[in-house]
Design goal:
Layout (H helix, E strand, L loop, with lengths): L5 E7 L5 E7 L12 E8 L4 E2 L5 E5 L12 E8 L2 E8 L7 E7 L7 E2 L6 E2 L12 E10 L5 E8 L12 E8 L6 E2 L57 E4 L2 E4 L14 E5 L4 E8 L9 E9 L2 E10 L2 E12 L6 E12 L5 E8 L2 E8 L5 E8 L5 H4 L6 E7 L7
Antiparallel strand pairs: 1-2, 2-3, 3-4, 3-5, 6-7, 7-8, 8-9, 8-10, 11-12, 12-13, 13-14, 15-16, 17-26, 18-23, 19-20, 19-26, 20-21, 21-22, 23-24, 24-25
Length: 409
Amino acid sequence: MEFGGIDPSIFFDDDGKAYVVHNDGPAGRPLYNGHRTIKIWEYDLEKDQVIAGTDKIIVDGGVDITKEPIWIEAPHLFKKYGRYFLMCAEGGTGPDHSEVIFVSDHPMGPYAPAPNNPILTQRYLSNDRNNKVANTGHADLTTDANGDYYGVFLGVRPNEKGRVNTGRESFILPVDWSGTFPVFINGLIPLDPKLKMPKGVTNKTNEPGFVPNGNFTFTENFRTEKLDYRWVGVRGWYKDFVNITPNGLRITPFPVNIKERKPTSTLFYRQQHNSFEATVTMDYRPAQASELAGIVCYQSEAFNYVFGVTRKDADTYITLVRNQRTGRGREAQTAATVVASEKIDASRPIKLQVTAQGDDYRFNYAAGNDDFKNLGGTVSGDILSTDVADGFSGSLIGLYATSANDIIP
């Protein structure tokens, strides 16, 4: 569509008209860092396009521009009681993230903020609370079959060091809209990790076709022709390098290193818990030093741990490497640090395992039916956090193979 900014949302009015609202820059020079606006356009349904010249700023800065609110964004329009309600995120995506709401008698405004803003946030709470959920906002509303309201929104679950390795996640709360403005029930007090299920609703976590939540175990034997939907790739389609065989999954590696911004021969599962254990059994014998296969804990090509089997001279080694970008812009470089390496006997299948307890990660291995042995001690998961690596998405745990290995044990 022919407009700038981010976070567009379409609103269909009951008179047949439609509108688009979105985040955009201010009309002139920003008054402060993070000064943004919410803009509305009339929308032509037949042409699937906004109508030129109909754009109008309906929120400038946020609830109170004199307090220099930052990043008003993610707008959604609703109609109730014959009036128009504009719900937006405010405060940026960090600890001050929140949800605020405005009301008007006309979709094009003017809009007045509710007296009880914000209607959802965790920014006023103690940092040392248990089961901490933070950075809540960027919400939307829906109703169930009974007409009851619910709000879905983004948030994070930091570990004990305050770092976020699972990235932004989707949360849900019931919403009470019996008064003038919607209220996220318990949205201003410490959020509980679990809610009581509504009457008549069954939690189908980990059942086929349903996204798992809470604590669960997932086992993949790679026996089905189509991989489970939970497996994801990076920049590439897994069928380009993966084959399902009677013995499991076979990866034919690309000549691409994990540190490159190219499609990699990797198959990932998202880290969904601050504490977890992931294990893979691998039958692999590298023929040369340029070959490596194993598992990788991956925040990005610039921040990851590689735990794999490779070759040096006539011997096979298992090695743990920490990749971390240093510097910015053209000066940025990804430094590879070999945490530990050990010569192994590759004649038997090897089990690779990564465990995490918050920020503490441990990488273990076992040949055949031997007991697990740790390599490299306890290492920090700092580089797997969005706090260090930047961005929003959480860490991935995956299978990785390459014919462009540059790790020297």
